[in-house]
Amino acid sequence: MTAAEPTSAPTSAPTAPAQPVFRTAQLRDVPGLVALVESAYRGESSRAGWTTEADLLEGQRTDEAAVADLLGRPDSVVLVVDGDDGAPIACCHLERRGTAAYFGMFSVSPAVQGGGLGRQVLARAEEWARAEWGVGAMEMTVIEQRADLIAWYERRGFVRTGEFEPFPYGDERFGVPLRADLRFAKLAKPLA
Fold first, then answer.
1. Distance between CA 37 and CA 40 in Å, rounded?
2. What is the pLDDT of residue 173?
3. What does the pLDDT read at residue 13?
4. Strands 100-108 vs 137-143: parallel, antiparallel or unpaired
5. Which pLDDT score, from 0 to 100, does residue 12 have?
6. What is the mean pLDDT of each successive set of 10 residues along the chain, which is 192 residues long?
7. Hey, how many other C-beta atoms are within 10 angstroms of the C-beta on 73?
8. Do 157 and 103 meet the contact criterion of CB atoms below 8 Å apart?
9. Which residues contact 27 (CB under 8 A, 6 or more apart)?
């Protein structure tokens, strides 16, 4: 910024409500959800939190078309928590797949990570999947190199299944890999 450029008022970091209120996402939420997901996983802003993938991948993590597609699928829902300013600060995607629910697009704003909101989102997702779909398990995939994130899920009852899925190399819709050995580990948890 040069001296001639106007300065803008400082923006405050988002804050998490004391008691999060969950809602299902609508199409109007797509831009805010994309911004949230990108801030939690990619680029320099993601380094403020612990969920960053910036050392593994560059480029985008998702885009508006992909998020809108999730919202339009049958047996698919995105749960959202808004911050005090009304912008999304946490979200997750659930999709019924037979007798299990797939859990993905789990994002918490780096500005509020570490305060327990992620645990609350995961717990609400599990409750929702049991109550709405009656499924008996939650499944997910996590980049195998994210040992800290996998350990977080393991502390919450998920186990590694021993199954893996390849990373979609060459499809920049999912990012530009910075290493050649990426793959997804499958995790699962029974829902009692």
1. 5
2. 87
3. 62
4. parallel
5. 55
6. 37 69 97 96 89 92 96 97 95 98 97 94 98 98 96 97 97 93 98 88
7. 11
8. no
9. 68, 71
The tokens describing 17, both together, are 């409500």
- Count other C-beta atoms under 10 Å from residue 176's C-beta: 13
The CB-side HSE value for 3 (13 A sphere, CA atoms) comes to 0
The answer to whether 39 touches 60, Cβ cutoff 8 Å, is: no
What pLDDT does residue 43 have? 86
Instruction: Give the long-range contacts of residues 144-149, CB within 8 A, separation 24 or more.
Output: 144/182, 144/183, 144/184, 144/185, 145/56, 145/179, 145/181, 145/182, 146/53, 146/56, 148/50, 149/51
Pair of tokens at residue 176:
């530009």
What sign for the dihedral angle of Cα 95, 25, 115, 147? positive
CA distance 145 to 137: 24
- Residue 146 one-letter amino acid: R
Query: CA quadruple 161, 171, 77, 122: dihedral positive or negative?
Result: positive
Tally Cβ neighbours within 10 Å of residue 132.
Answer: 13
